Amino acid sequence: MTGPDTDTAGSAEDAEDALFVLTAVLLTPAQFPSVLGDDYPQACAALGLEPYAEGYGLVLGQDGTGARWTVVIDDVSLVAVAIASWDCGMEYDLSPDERTVVTGLPGWPLPLAVAAPGIPAPHDPAPGNGTDEPSLLSPPDTDTWGPAQRRLGADEIALQWAAWREQIDDEETFAGAGGTPSHSGVRRVIEELHGYVEAPPPPGRVRSTFASGQARTLRADGPGWSVVARTDDIAFVLLDDEPGEVLPLGRGPELPGLLEALDKIAVRPA
User: Fold this and answer.
1) Which candidate in 5, 34, 174, 188 could, as Cys together with 151 as Cys, close a disulfide (CB 3.0–4.6 Å)?
2) pLDDT of residue 101
3) What is the pTM assigned to this prediction?
């Protein structure tokens, strides 16, 4: 492993090989940083990992010099417990066992606004001397619209569904999207979604999570597009070809059945 020794996580601040953990995320078919790809295999490929069905945990932190590192571990349950504890406002000492470490990657794939206290500010680690050094990870450029920004936009809609839904007038939405949508890009997305039902796509292209009531929140991605929907409501479409635009898709006669069929093939968090 090239990088910090995670077995010393949380040790004395003057130990340069220590990993001071800042946060962690899951990398599984049902939950992965969408900036990395449209599906789980793509996300793994972006980090040089094999797309094992069990998934991984990504531990983001700094070494004793302040350098950014992403440590990949195969103990998914440990990371899941840590994230759940932090989400509840509880302290949790995430100290992965060295035997669970898959690899250490320089940099962070996601932007972080926090830093470990008492050590230098976060910075890129110095390049090694080996010819097989892994590529430096860095967050996507948010100043330009592209696949990563499109997927981040879909993430935001999924997190803030109620706020986005309040902006849509039902009469206008249903009139504009019921039956056959007039937007050619949206029509293409619907055709590809039907294709997913007929021939299931790679893991993670369609994901299903809890929503209020008996509904589910669906997230689907494909080449140049992302969709966020609730099984009991409408959908929102984002396209690479429409920078910054969010296109509402009303239920009409077709969408309810399509969403139900997608939910049956979607991967779900354990």
Assistant:
1) 34
2) 94
3) 0.87
